Amino acid sequence: MRRTALIPLLVLLAAAPPPAIQSPGEIVAAAPASAWRAVDPDNLVLMDLANGGHVAIELAPAFAPAHVANIRALVRGHWFDGNAIVRVQDNYVVQWGGADEKKPLPAGVAAHLPAEYERPRAGLAMRPLGFRDAYAAEVGDADGWPVASDGKSAWLPHCYGMVGVGRDMPPDTGTGAELYTVIGQAPRHLDRNITVVGRVIDGIETMTALPRGTGDLGFYTDPAQRTGIVRARMASDVPAADRPRYQAMRSDAPAFAAYVDARANRRDAFFVRPAGAVDLCNAPVPVRRVP
Amino acid sequence: MRRTALIPLLVLLAAAPPPAIQSPGEIVAAAPASAWRAVDPDNLVLMDLANGGHVAIELAPAFAPAHVANIRALVRGHWFDGNAIVRVQDNYVVQWGGADEKKPLPAGVAAHLPAEYERPRAGLAMRPLGFRDAYAAEVGDADGWPVASDGKSAWLPHCYGMVGVGRDMPPDTGTGAELYTVIGQAPRHLDRNITVVGRVIDGIETMTALPRGTGDLGFYTDPAQRTGIVRARMASDVPAADRPRYQAMRSDAPAFAAYVDARANRRDAFFVRPAGAVDLCNAPVPVRRVP
Question: Which stretches make up the PPIase cyclophilin-type domain (chains A, B) (predicted)?
Fold first, then answer.
Protein backbone atom coordinates (compact mmCIF):
# COMPACT_ATOMS: atom_id res chain seq x y z
CA MET A 1 0.00 0.00 0.00
CA ARG A 2 2.68 2.43 0.95
CA ARG A 3 4.64 1.96 -2.26
CA THR A 4 1.55 2.39 -4.38
CA ALA A 5 0.53 5.52 -2.56
CA LEU A 6 3.92 7.01 -3.28
CA ILE A 7 3.71 6.70 -7.03
CA PRO A 8 1.76 9.89 -7.72
CA LEU A 9 4.18 11.84 -5.56
CA LEU A 10 7.19 10.45 -7.43
CA VAL A 11 5.58 11.29 -10.74
CA LEU A 12 4.89 14.78 -9.49
CA LEU A 13 8.50 15.21 -8.38
CA ALA A 14 9.73 14.03 -11.77
CA ALA A 15 7.44 16.45 -13.55
CA ALA A 16 8.42 19.48 -11.46
CA PRO A 17 12.18 19.69 -10.95
CA PRO A 18 13.23 21.11 -7.60
CA PRO A 19 14.18 24.79 -7.61
CA ALA A 20 17.84 25.42 -8.39
CA ILE A 21 19.99 25.66 -5.26
CA GLN A 22 21.89 28.91 -5.16
CA SER A 23 24.81 29.81 -2.96
CA PRO A 24 24.72 33.19 -1.20
CA GLY A 25 27.15 34.53 -3.79
CA GLU A 26 24.97 33.35 -6.65
CA ILE A 27 21.93 35.02 -5.10
CA VAL A 28 23.84 38.29 -4.81
CA ALA A 29 25.13 38.03 -8.38
CA ALA A 30 21.61 37.42 -9.69
CA ALA A 31 19.93 40.19 -7.65
CA PRO A 32 18.04 42.70 -9.81
CA ALA A 33 18.90 46.39 -9.95
CA SER A 34 15.95 47.10 -7.64
CA ALA A 35 17.70 45.18 -4.85
CA TRP A 36 20.41 47.83 -4.53
CA ARG A 37 20.68 51.35 -3.17
CA ALA A 38 23.50 53.70 -4.13
CA VAL A 39 26.17 54.62 -1.60
CA ASP A 40 25.86 58.41 -1.32
CA PRO A 41 29.19 59.98 -2.39
CA ASP A 42 28.83 62.44 0.49
CA ASN A 43 28.95 59.44 2.84
CA LEU A 44 31.91 57.86 1.09
CA VAL A 45 35.52 58.36 2.20
CA LEU A 46 38.23 57.26 -0.24
CA MET A 47 41.58 56.64 1.41
CA ASP A 48 44.80 55.91 -0.48
CA LEU A 49 47.51 54.07 1.44
CA ALA A 50 51.26 54.22 0.89
CA ASN A 51 51.25 50.44 0.28
CA GLY A 52 49.08 50.97 -2.80
CA GLY A 53 45.85 50.16 -1.01
CA HIS A 54 42.62 51.95 -1.88
CA VAL A 55 40.12 51.83 0.96
CA ALA A 56 36.48 52.92 0.66
CA ILE A 57 34.50 53.67 3.82
CA GLU A 58 30.75 54.28 3.90
CA LEU A 59 29.64 56.60 6.70
CA ALA A 60 26.36 56.18 8.55
CA PRO A 61 24.86 59.60 9.37
CA ALA A 62 21.62 57.93 10.49
CA PHE A 63 23.53 56.55 13.48
CA ALA A 64 26.23 59.13 14.24
CA PRO A 65 25.38 62.43 12.54
CA ALA A 66 27.72 64.64 14.58
CA HIS A 67 30.70 62.33 14.16
CA VAL A 68 30.01 61.88 10.45
CA ALA A 69 29.94 65.67 10.02
CA ASN A 70 33.23 65.89 11.92
CA ILE A 71 34.82 63.19 9.76
CA ARG A 72 33.75 65.01 6.60
CA ALA A 73 35.42 68.17 7.97
CA LEU A 74 38.53 66.20 8.97
CA VAL A 75 38.80 64.71 5.47
CA ARG A 76 38.21 68.08 3.80
CA GLY A 77 40.72 69.69 6.17
CA HIS A 78 43.34 67.13 5.03
CA TRP A 79 43.69 65.67 8.52
CA PHE A 80 44.36 62.18 7.19
CA ASP A 81 46.74 63.20 4.38
CA GLY A 82 50.24 62.22 5.47
CA ASN A 83 48.82 60.54 8.57
CA ALA A 84 49.27 56.79 9.15
CA ILE A 85 47.99 53.45 10.36
CA VAL A 86 49.42 53.30 13.87
CA ARG A 87 47.99 50.08 15.29
CA VAL A 88 47.26 46.57 14.02
CA GLN A 89 46.15 44.17 16.75
CA ASP A 90 45.52 40.62 15.60
CA ASN A 91 41.92 39.41 15.78
CA TYR A 92 40.86 42.90 16.87
CA VAL A 93 41.41 46.21 15.05
CA VAL A 94 43.42 48.29 12.58
CA GLN A 95 43.57 51.93 13.73
CA TRP A 96 44.65 55.09 11.88
CA GLY A 97 44.74 58.85 12.12
CA GLY A 98 46.70 59.23 15.36
CA ALA A 99 50.20 59.63 13.95
CA ASP A 100 50.80 63.02 15.60
CA GLU A 101 48.98 63.86 18.81
CA LYS A 102 50.22 67.47 18.70
CA LYS A 103 48.81 68.25 15.26
CA PRO A 104 45.95 70.76 15.62
CA LEU A 105 42.55 69.73 14.33
CA PRO A 106 41.51 71.48 11.10
CA ALA A 107 39.20 74.48 11.30
CA GLY A 108 35.56 73.52 11.64
CA VAL A 109 36.30 70.24 13.43
CA ALA A 110 34.80 69.89 16.89
CA ALA A 111 37.31 68.83 19.56
CA HIS A 112 34.54 67.37 21.71
CA LEU A 113 31.36 65.66 20.61
CA PRO A 114 28.61 63.98 22.55
CA ALA A 115 28.80 60.19 22.44
CA GLU A 116 26.63 58.70 19.68
CA TYR A 117 26.62 55.14 20.95
CA GLU A 118 22.99 54.50 20.13
CA ARG A 119 19.93 56.12 18.57
CA PRO A 120 16.19 55.56 18.92
CA ARG A 121 14.90 52.32 17.44
CA ALA A 122 11.88 54.29 16.18
CA GLY A 123 12.37 55.57 12.66
CA LEU A 124 14.37 52.56 11.47
CA ALA A 125 12.70 50.18 9.01
CA MET A 126 14.39 47.16 10.53
CA ARG A 127 14.16 43.77 8.88
CA PRO A 128 14.62 41.15 11.63
CA LEU A 129 17.46 38.73 10.96
CA GLY A 130 15.23 35.95 12.23
CA PHE A 131 17.86 34.31 14.44
CA ARG A 132 18.99 34.86 17.98
CA ASP A 133 22.00 36.92 18.94
CA ALA A 134 24.43 36.41 21.81
CA TYR A 135 24.36 40.10 22.74
CA ALA A 136 21.19 41.91 21.72
CA ALA A 137 17.48 41.20 22.15
CA GLU A 138 16.83 42.07 18.50
CA VAL A 139 19.09 42.09 15.46
CA GLY A 140 18.45 42.75 11.81
CA ASP A 141 19.17 45.17 9.01
CA ALA A 142 17.94 48.63 8.10
CA ASP A 143 18.70 50.57 4.93
CA GLY A 144 21.64 48.32 4.15
CA TRP A 145 23.19 48.37 7.63
CA PRO A 146 23.37 45.66 10.29
CA VAL A 147 21.57 46.84 13.42
CA ALA A 148 21.27 45.62 17.00
CA SER A 149 18.54 46.81 19.32
CA ASP A 150 17.05 46.42 22.77
CA GLY A 151 13.65 47.42 21.40
CA LYS A 152 14.05 51.06 22.42
CA SER A 153 17.52 52.00 21.21
CA ALA A 154 19.39 50.79 18.14
CA TRP A 155 23.09 50.73 17.31
CA LEU A 156 25.59 49.58 14.73
CA PRO A 157 27.26 46.35 15.89
CA HIS A 158 31.03 45.81 15.85
CA CYS A 159 31.10 43.34 12.94
CA TYR A 160 34.17 42.68 10.79
CA GLY A 161 34.92 45.83 8.77
CA MET A 162 32.78 48.20 10.83
CA VAL A 163 34.49 51.52 11.58
CA GLY A 164 34.51 53.10 15.03
CA VAL A 165 35.81 56.26 16.65
CA GLY A 166 38.83 55.88 18.93
CA ARG A 167 38.51 57.72 22.21
CA ASP A 168 40.23 58.20 25.56
CA MET A 169 38.54 57.35 28.85
CA PRO A 170 35.93 60.15 28.89
CA PRO A 171 33.09 59.27 26.49
CA ASP A 172 33.18 62.68 24.77
CA THR A 173 36.84 62.49 23.71
CA GLY A 174 36.32 60.86 20.33
CA THR A 175 36.27 63.21 17.36
CA GLY A 176 36.74 60.93 14.35
CA ALA A 177 40.38 62.02 13.97
CA GLU A 178 41.37 58.51 15.04
CA LEU A 179 39.40 55.66 13.54
CA TYR A 180 39.60 51.86 13.63
CA THR A 181 38.08 48.95 11.81
CA VAL A 182 37.40 45.44 13.12
CA ILE A 183 39.64 42.68 11.68
CA GLY A 184 38.63 39.64 13.71
CA GLN A 185 35.82 38.04 15.66
CA ALA A 186 33.22 40.75 16.19
CA PRO A 187 34.14 42.47 19.52
CA ARG A 188 30.51 43.12 20.33
CA HIS A 189 31.37 44.09 23.92
CA LEU A 190 32.42 47.42 22.38
CA ASP A 191 28.85 48.02 21.19
CA ARG A 192 27.36 51.05 22.93
CA ASN A 193 30.77 51.88 24.41
CA ILE A 194 32.13 53.56 21.30
CA THR A 195 30.61 55.56 18.47
CA VAL A 196 30.41 53.44 15.32
CA VAL A 197 30.39 55.62 12.22
CA GLY A 198 30.44 53.30 9.24
CA ARG A 199 32.16 50.38 7.54
CA VAL A 200 34.90 49.57 5.09
CA ILE A 201 33.21 48.57 1.83
CA ASP A 202 36.29 48.08 -0.35
CA GLY A 203 40.01 47.44 0.07
CA ILE A 204 39.99 46.13 3.63
CA GLU A 205 42.49 43.42 2.62
CA THR A 206 45.12 46.12 2.17
CA MET A 207 44.81 46.86 5.89
CA THR A 208 44.11 43.39 7.35
CA ALA A 209 47.30 41.94 5.84
CA LEU A 210 49.55 44.52 7.53
CA PRO A 211 52.11 43.28 10.06
CA ARG A 212 50.74 43.17 13.58
CA GLY A 213 52.17 45.78 15.95
CA THR A 214 54.25 44.37 18.76
CA GLY A 215 53.59 47.11 21.32
CA ASP A 216 50.78 47.19 23.86
CA LEU A 217 47.38 46.79 22.17
CA GLY A 218 49.10 46.17 18.83
CA PHE A 219 50.51 49.69 18.43
CA TYR A 220 53.67 49.88 16.35
CA THR A 221 56.66 50.55 18.57
CA ASP A 222 58.59 52.35 15.82
CA PRO A 223 56.95 54.99 13.60
CA ALA A 224 58.89 53.49 10.69
CA GLN A 225 56.63 50.42 10.92
CA ARG A 226 53.52 52.45 10.20
CA THR A 227 51.77 52.42 6.85
CA GLY A 228 51.25 55.92 5.59
CA ILE A 229 47.96 57.40 4.42
CA VAL A 230 48.70 59.29 1.20
CA ARG A 231 45.38 61.08 1.23
CA ALA A 232 41.70 60.79 2.05
CA ARG A 233 38.94 62.45 0.10
CA MET A 234 35.18 62.61 0.19
CA ALA A 235 33.95 60.90 -2.97
CA SER A 236 31.65 63.89 -3.51
CA ASP A 237 34.78 66.06 -3.94
CA VAL A 238 36.18 63.77 -6.64
CA PRO A 239 35.19 64.60 -10.24
CA ALA A 240 32.23 62.39 -11.12
CA ALA A 241 34.10 60.71 -13.96
CA ASP A 242 36.90 59.57 -11.61
CA ARG A 243 34.67 58.63 -8.72
CA PRO A 244 34.20 54.94 -7.80
CA ARG A 245 30.54 54.13 -7.25
CA TYR A 246 29.20 51.51 -4.87
CA GLN A 247 25.85 49.98 -4.06
CA ALA A 248 24.64 48.24 -0.90
CA MET A 249 21.86 45.68 -0.91
CA ARG A 250 18.53 47.03 0.31
CA SER A 251 17.38 45.47 3.56
CA ASP A 252 13.84 45.17 2.22
CA ALA A 253 14.80 43.49 -1.06
CA PRO A 254 13.56 39.92 -1.60
CA ALA A 255 17.10 39.08 -2.72
CA PHE A 256 18.39 40.11 0.70
CA ALA A 257 15.94 37.79 2.42
CA ALA A 258 17.04 34.97 0.10
CA TYR A 259 20.69 35.78 0.82
CA VAL A 260 20.22 35.65 4.61
CA ASP A 261 18.28 32.39 4.27
CA ALA A 262 21.07 30.89 2.16
CA ARG A 263 23.71 32.04 4.67
CA ALA A 264 21.74 30.31 7.41
CA ASN A 265 20.98 27.19 5.38
CA ARG A 266 23.82 26.38 3.03
CA ARG A 267 22.41 23.94 0.55
CA ASP A 268 25.18 24.09 -2.04
CA ALA A 269 26.89 20.78 -2.70
CA PHE A 270 29.74 21.06 -0.16
CA PHE A 271 27.44 21.20 2.85
CA VAL A 272 26.11 18.07 4.49
CA ARG A 273 24.27 19.82 7.34
CA PRO A 274 22.92 23.37 7.02
CA ALA A 275 23.37 25.33 10.26
CA GLY A 276 19.74 26.46 10.40
CA ALA A 277 20.85 29.81 11.79
CA VAL A 278 23.25 32.64 11.15
CA ASP A 279 24.97 35.20 13.31
CA LEU A 280 24.31 38.87 12.42
CA CYS A 281 27.99 39.43 11.60
CA ASN A 282 28.03 36.30 9.43
CA ALA A 283 25.43 37.73 7.07
CA PRO A 284 27.25 40.92 6.03
CA VAL A 285 25.24 43.25 3.83
CA PRO A 286 26.35 42.65 0.22
CA VAL A 287 28.11 45.65 -1.28
CA ARG A 288 29.31 45.93 -4.88
CA ARG A 289 31.28 48.33 -6.95
CA VAL A 290 29.41 49.57 -9.99
CA PRO A 291 31.56 49.12 -13.09
CA MET B 1 14.19 60.56 55.19
CA ARG B 2 15.90 59.10 52.19
CA ARG B 3 19.17 60.93 52.82
CA THR B 4 19.22 59.87 56.45
CA ALA B 5 18.55 56.26 55.57
CA LEU B 6 21.48 56.28 53.21
CA ILE B 7 24.09 57.27 55.77
CA PRO B 8 24.78 53.81 57.24
CA LEU B 9 25.20 52.42 53.72
CA LEU B 10 27.67 55.13 52.80
CA VAL B 11 29.64 54.46 55.97
CA LEU B 12 29.67 50.77 55.17
CA LEU B 13 30.92 51.47 51.65
CA ALA B 14 33.69 53.69 52.99
CA ALA B 15 34.73 51.04 55.51
CA ALA B 16 34.81 48.17 53.00
CA PRO B 17 36.43 49.22 49.73
CA PRO B 18 34.91 47.58 46.67
CA PRO B 19 36.80 44.57 45.31
CA ALA B 20 39.44 45.50 42.77
CA ILE B 21 38.14 45.46 39.23
CA GLN B 22 40.23 43.22 37.03
CA SER B 23 40.30 43.07 33.26
CA PRO B 24 40.18 39.64 31.60
CA GLY B 25 43.92 39.89 30.98
CA GLU B 26 44.64 40.70 34.61
CA ILE B 27 42.58 37.71 35.73
CA VAL B 28 44.55 35.44 33.41
CA ALA B 29 47.87 36.89 34.57
CA ALA B 30 46.92 36.34 38.22
CA ALA B 31 45.57 32.80 37.76
CA PRO B 32 47.30 30.25 40.02
CA ALA B 33 49.24 27.27 38.68
CA SER B 34 46.27 25.03 39.45
CA ALA B 35 44.21 26.87 36.82
CA TRP B 36 46.33 25.48 33.99
CA ARG B 37 46.77 22.15 32.24
CA ALA B 38 49.82 21.30 30.15
CA VAL B 39 49.51 21.02 26.39
CA ASP B 40 50.61 17.43 25.68
CA PRO B 41 53.68 17.52 23.40
CA ASP B 42 52.21 14.59 21.48
CA ASN B 43 49.28 16.88 20.60
CA LEU B 44 51.49 19.79 19.66
CA VAL B 45 52.59 20.52 16.08
CA LEU B 46 55.40 23.06 15.64
CA MET B 47 55.54 24.58 12.18
CA ASP B 48 58.30 26.89 10.94
CA LEU B 49 57.44 29.21 8.06
CA ALA B 50 59.76 30.62 5.44
CA ASN B 51 58.78 34.15 6.58
CA GLY B 52 60.31 33.45 9.99
CA GLY B 53 57.01 32.55 11.61
CA HIS B 54 56.80 29.86 14.28
CA VAL B 55 53.30 28.43 14.56
CA ALA B 56 52.17 26.09 17.35
CA ILE B 57 49.02 24.01 16.87
CA GLU B 58 47.34 22.00 19.62
CA LEU B 59 45.52 18.92 18.35
CA ALA B 60 42.28 17.64 19.90
CA PRO B 61 42.22 13.82 19.88
CA ALA B 62 39.12 13.84 22.08
CA PHE B 63 37.19 15.22 19.11
CA ALA B 64 38.93 13.79 16.02
CA PRO B 65 41.11 10.83 17.02
CA ALA B 66 41.53 9.35 13.53
CA HIS B 67 42.43 12.68 11.94
CA VAL B 68 44.81 13.57 14.76
CA ALA B 69 46.58 10.21 14.30
CA ASN B 70 46.81 10.91 10.57
CA ILE B 71 48.23 14.38 11.16
CA ARG B 72 50.88 12.98 13.50
CA ALA B 73 51.84 10.50 10.74
CA LEU B 74 51.84 13.29 8.13
CA VAL B 75 54.11 15.43 10.30
CA ARG B 76 56.45 12.50 11.06
CA GLY B 77 56.44 11.55 7.37
CA HIS B 78 57.64 15.11 6.52
CA TRP B 79 54.51 15.86 4.47
CA PHE B 80 54.54 19.53 5.47
CA ASP B 81 58.30 20.10 5.08
CA GLY B 82 58.80 22.11 1.90
CA ASN B 83 55.03 22.46 1.50
CA ALA B 84 53.34 25.89 1.56
CA ILE B 85 50.49 28.14 2.52
CA VAL B 86 48.39 28.12 -0.64
CA ARG B 87 45.32 30.16 0.28
CA VAL B 88 44.60 33.30 2.31
CA GLN B 89 40.99 34.46 2.05
CA ASP B 90 40.21 37.64 3.94
CA ASN B 91 37.81 37.29 6.87
CA TYR B 92 37.81 33.53 6.35
CA VAL B 93 40.79 31.14 6.33
CA VAL B 94 44.50 30.55 5.81
CA GLN B 95 45.09 27.11 4.27
CA TRP B 96 48.29 25.06 3.90
CA GLY B 97 49.62 21.66 2.92
CA GLY B 98 48.19 21.45 -0.60
CA ALA B 99 51.16 22.72 -2.57
CA ASP B 100 51.46 19.59 -4.70
CA GLU B 101 48.39 17.47 -5.36
CA LYS B 102 50.46 14.74 -6.99
CA LYS B 103 52.78 14.19 -4.02
CA PRO B 104 52.06 10.74 -2.53
CA LEU B 105 51.00 10.59 1.09
CA PRO B 106 53.69 9.26 3.45
CA ALA B 107 53.56 5.62 4.54
CA GLY B 108 51.11 5.01 7.36
CA VAL B 109 48.82 7.87 6.40
CA ALA B 110 45.24 6.92 5.59
CA ALA B 111 43.99 8.29 2.26
CA HIS B 112 40.37 8.11 3.44
CA LEU B 113 39.01 8.64 6.91
CA PRO B 114 35.49 8.69 8.24
CA ALA B 115 34.20 12.18 8.93
CA GLU B 116 34.72 13.24 12.56
CA TYR B 117 32.35 16.18 12.55
CA GLU B 118 30.94 15.49 16.00
CA ARG B 119 31.27 13.17 18.98
CA PRO B 120 28.95 12.16 21.81
CA ARG B 121 28.22 14.88 24.35
CA ALA B 122 28.48 12.21 27.03
CA GLY B 123 31.95 11.95 28.50
CA LEU B 124 32.70 15.66 28.25
CA ALA B 125 32.87 17.65 31.48
CA MET B 126 31.37 20.71 29.89
CA ARG B 127 31.23 24.02 31.74
CA PRO B 128 28.29 25.98 30.29
CA LEU B 129 29.27 29.39 28.94
CA GLY B 130 26.11 30.78 30.49
CA PHE B 131 25.06 32.84 27.47
CA ARG B 132 23.06 32.05 24.37
CA ASP B 133 24.59 31.17 21.04
CA ALA B 134 23.35 32.00 17.55
CA TYR B 135 24.02 28.47 16.31
CA ALA B 136 23.95 25.81 19.02
CA ALA B 137 21.51 24.93 21.79
CA GLU B 138 24.38 24.62 24.29
CA VAL B 139 27.87 26.09 24.33
CA GLY B 140 30.65 25.99 26.85
CA ASP B 141 34.13 24.66 27.47
CA ALA B 142 35.57 21.25 28.27
CA ASP B 143 39.18 20.44 29.16
CA GLY B 144 40.36 23.77 27.79
CA TRP B 145 38.44 23.61 24.51
CA PRO B 146 35.38 25.58 23.33
CA VAL B 147 32.51 23.20 22.65
CA ALA B 148 29.10 23.45 21.01
CA SER B 149 26.41 20.85 21.51
CA ASP B 150 22.83 19.94 20.71
CA GLY B 151 22.62 18.00 23.96
CA LYS B 152 23.42 14.68 22.31
CA SER B 153 26.45 15.41 20.13
CA ALA B 154 29.29 17.84 20.74
CA TRP B 155 31.73 19.50 18.36
CA LEU B 156 34.53 22.03 18.18
CA PRO B 157 33.20 25.35 16.83
CA HIS B 158 34.89 27.30 14.04
CA CYS B 159 36.22 30.13 16.21
CA TYR B 160 39.16 32.35 15.23
CA GLY B 161 42.33 30.23 15.20
CA MET B 162 40.59 26.84 15.17
CA VAL B 163 42.13 24.39 12.71
CA GLY B 164 40.05 22.28 10.33
CA VAL B 165 40.66 19.62 7.71
CA GLY B 166 40.24 20.67 4.09
CA ARG B 167 38.22 18.23 2.02
CA ASP B 168 36.63 17.80 -1.39
CA MET B 169 32.91 17.25 -1.87
CA PRO B 170 32.66 13.71 -0.42
CA PRO B 171 32.80 13.88 3.39
CA ASP B 172 35.51 11.19 3.65
CA THR B 173 38.06 12.98 1.47
CA GLY B 174 39.81 14.94 4.20
CA THR B 175 43.02 13.40 5.52
CA GLY B 176 44.72 16.23 7.38
CA ALA B 177 47.23 16.74 4.58
CA GLU B 178 45.52 20.07 3.88
CA LEU B 179 44.61 22.18 6.89
CA TYR B 180 43.17 25.64 7.44
CA THR B 181 42.73 28.04 10.31
CA VAL B 182 40.00 30.66 10.76
CA ILE B 183 41.16 34.30 10.43
CA GLY B 184 37.90 36.24 10.63
CA GLN B 185 34.38 36.19 11.97
CA ALA B 186 33.74 32.63 13.15
CA PRO B 187 32.26 30.77 10.12
CA ARG B 188 30.09 28.61 12.33
CA HIS B 189 28.09 27.35 9.34
CA LEU B 190 31.10 25.08 8.75
CA ASP B 191 30.51 23.39 12.13
CA ARG B 192 29.58 19.74 11.64
CA ASN B 193 30.43 20.02 7.93
CA ILE B 194 34.18 19.66 8.38
CA THR B 195 36.42 17.84 10.84
CA VAL B 196 37.94 20.31 13.29
CA VAL B 197 41.21 18.98 14.69
CA GLY B 198 42.65 21.68 16.89
CA ARG B 199 43.69 25.32 17.15
CA VAL B 200 46.62 27.61 16.64
CA ILE B 201 47.94 28.51 20.09
CA ASP B 202 50.97 30.58 19.09
CA GLY B 203 52.24 32.50 16.07
CA ILE B 204 48.94 32.96 14.24
CA GLU B 205 49.91 36.57 13.45
CA THR B 206 52.60 35.26 11.11
CA MET B 207 49.82 33.74 8.99
CA THR B 208 47.02 36.28 9.38
CA ALA B 209 49.19 39.13 8.08
CA LEU B 210 49.97 37.34 4.81
CA PRO B 211 48.79 38.94 1.57
CA ARG B 212 45.33 37.79 0.57
CA GLY B 213 45.20 35.53 -2.49
CA THR B 214 43.51 37.03 -5.50
CA GLY B 215 42.25 33.79 -7.06
CA ASP B 216 38.90 32.11 -6.40
CA LEU B 217 38.41 31.49 -2.66
CA GLY B 218 41.61 33.38 -1.88
CA PHE B 219 43.99 30.86 -3.47
CA TYR B 220 47.24 32.33 -4.73
CA THR B 221 47.24 32.44 -8.52
CA ASP B 222 51.03 32.14 -8.75
CA PRO B 223 52.98 29.58 -6.68
CA ALA B 224 55.63 32.27 -6.16
CA GLN B 225 53.13 34.12 -3.92
CA ARG B 226 52.94 31.22 -1.48
CA THR B 227 54.68 31.26 1.87
CA GLY B 228 56.76 28.14 2.32
CA ILE B 229 56.64 25.78 5.27
CA VAL B 230 60.22 25.02 6.22
CA ARG B 231 59.28 22.10 8.44
CA ALA B 232 56.71 20.79 10.87
CA ARG B 233 57.51 18.60 13.85
CA MET B 234 55.65 16.98 16.67
CA ALA B 235 56.83 18.67 19.86
CA SER B 236 57.29 15.20 21.37
CA ASP B 237 60.00 14.55 18.73
CA VAL B 238 61.91 17.69 19.72
CA PRO B 239 64.54 17.28 22.48
CA ALA B 240 62.89 18.29 25.75
CA ALA B 241 65.39 21.10 26.33
CA ASP B 242 64.51 22.75 23.00
CA ARG B 243 60.78 22.16 23.19
CA PRO B 244 58.43 25.09 23.76
CA ARG B 245 55.88 24.28 26.44
CA TYR B 246 52.35 25.64 26.60
CA GLN B 247 49.47 25.56 29.04
CA ALA B 248 45.75 26.01 28.46
CA MET B 249 43.40 27.24 31.15
CA ARG B 250 41.32 24.49 32.74
CA SER B 251 37.61 24.79 32.03
CA ASP B 252 36.78 23.98 35.64
CA ALA B 253 39.18 26.51 37.20
CA PRO B 254 37.60 29.35 39.21
CA ALA B 255 39.90 31.70 37.28
CA PHE B 256 38.26 30.59 34.02
CA ALA B 257 34.81 31.39 35.39
CA ALA B 258 36.08 34.81 36.47
CA TYR B 259 37.63 35.35 33.04
CA VAL B 260 34.39 34.52 31.19
CA ASP B 261 32.44 36.78 33.55
CA ALA B 262 34.89 39.63 32.94
CA ARG B 263 34.67 39.10 29.16
CA ALA B 264 30.88 39.36 29.42
CA ASN B 265 30.89 42.28 31.85
CA ARG B 266 33.81 44.58 31.19
CA ARG B 267 34.09 46.75 34.25
CA ASP B 268 37.55 48.20 33.60
CA ALA B 269 37.61 51.97 33.31
CA PHE B 270 37.14 52.33 29.55
CA PHE B 271 33.72 50.69 29.51
CA VAL B 272 30.58 52.66 30.21
CA ARG B 273 28.14 49.79 29.59
CA PRO B 274 29.09 46.14 30.13
CA ALA B 275 27.55 43.89 27.47
CA GLY B 276 26.09 41.44 29.98
CA ALA B 277 26.84 38.58 27.61
CA VAL B 278 29.62 37.09 25.55
CA ASP B 279 29.79 35.00 22.42
CA LEU B 280 31.57 31.64 22.72
CA CYS B 281 34.23 32.71 20.22
CA ASN B 282 34.74 35.99 22.10
CA ALA B 283 35.85 34.17 25.23
CA PRO B 284 38.78 32.21 23.79
CA VAL B 285 40.42 29.79 26.19
CA PRO B 286 43.55 31.46 27.59
CA VAL B 287 46.75 29.75 26.50
CA ARG B 288 50.24 30.70 27.64
CA ARG B 289 53.77 29.73 26.86
CA VAL B 290 55.69 28.49 29.86
CA PRO B 291 58.99 30.37 30.13
Answer: 53-234
A185 vs B contacts (CB less than 8 Å): 159-160, 184-186, 279, 281-282
Would you put residue A56 in left (φ > 0), alpha (ψ -120 to 50) or beta?
Answer: beta
Give the C-alpha separation, A265 to B54, whole Å: 37
Domain A40-234 in CATH 2.40.100.10:
yes
Give dist(CA A212, CA B183) in Å, integer.
Answer: 13
Q: Does A225 touch chain B (CB under 8 A)?
A: no
Model ipTM value: 0.92
The order of strands in the sheet holding B138-142 is B119-120, B153-155, B145-149, B138-142, B127-128
- Which residue of A279, A280, A285 is the best one to mutate when testing the B interface, meaning the one whose CB has the most B CBs within 10 A? A279
Q: Which residues of chain B lie closer than 8 angstroms to A275, CB-CB?
A: 135, 188-189, 191
- The shortest C-alpha distance from B5 to chain A (Å) reads 32
Measured between beta carbons, the chain A residues lying within 8 angstroms of B280 are: 134
Pick from A88, A210, A275: which is nearest to B189 by CB? A275
E-assigned strand segments in B221-272: 227-234, 245-249
Q: Which of residues 199-218 of B touch A (CB under 8 A)?
A: 204-205, 208-212
Q: What's the CATH architecture for B39-239?
A: Beta Barrel (2.40)
Distance from CA of A273 to the nearest CA of B (A): 6
Would you say B221 and B84 are in contact if contact means Cβ atoms under 8 Å apart? no
